[in-house]
Amino acid sequence: MEQHLALHAVLIPSLIAAAACGASRLVPFLRRLAPLLVPLALASVAVRAGVVQEGISILSTWPPATRWITAIACIAAMGCGGAPLGLFAIHENGRGPLVAAFLAGPIAGGIVLGLLSLPGDSTTWTVSRTAIAAAVLAMVLSSGKVRGPGIFLSLAFPAAALAGLLLVSGSAKLAVTAGSVAFACGLLGLLSIPLRVTLGAGGVAVMAIVLTTLAAQGRGYDYDSFPSWIWTVVALSPLAGILGDLALARLLPDLVRFALRAIPPLVISGGALALAAWKAGLFSAGESGDPYGP
Prior knowledge:
Helix content is 69%, strand content 0%. By secondary structure, it is mainly α.
């Protein structure tokens, strides 16, 4: 079962997404479509992970039978809504990227506010906080540099840490979804070196929704495996990567700027995951987590 999930929910969708985005950079007449493909590719990986685990009918009924599917719906909607943002970024020297960054936040927040449903006794305010977090993450990160491996990895590392948190708390299905998108984002980051694949405002917004909605779902299903603030720290850890976009950082060599962009989110999210595992007792002989989580 684990090999089936790893192959069909993580590896194959990620490779297809990377191949599509890479081809869009190699084929001349597809290059103008490249900024539109990355958000769709990342969202399709998340949807595929949900389909593999719950069946093709996961989005055919609304509201869904299980609330965690609403996070998949948010990601899918942002993939479709974020793709057009790439049109604003085709001319990099104009105001298009700033327009895309300005729009990314409200679109992400509106999608979460309209579609997300959380488990347990979650209130409208809880959903609203998730929407605000998604909007802030999308807008702030889109305002900086959205091309190059640094931005991809500053989001892929926290997504991978989030997958670990979800496993620690017992939400295996959510963990597979987060892990699949993290793997795809990391692959695209590697492709960005030779092929200049651009994450763009749309891709940033998709990853913002992945981090915030899956963290909110995981927190809702968790039964105090570890302090609840750890979910927030991991979801918002990409904001630490803005160190690479500061005015003084622009005077530094590219390798140093890459380190300032990618390493702080890695350290913060990785440290939070280690703390969660310790609090959950995984470094001892005891067992923890909710085996009935999604």
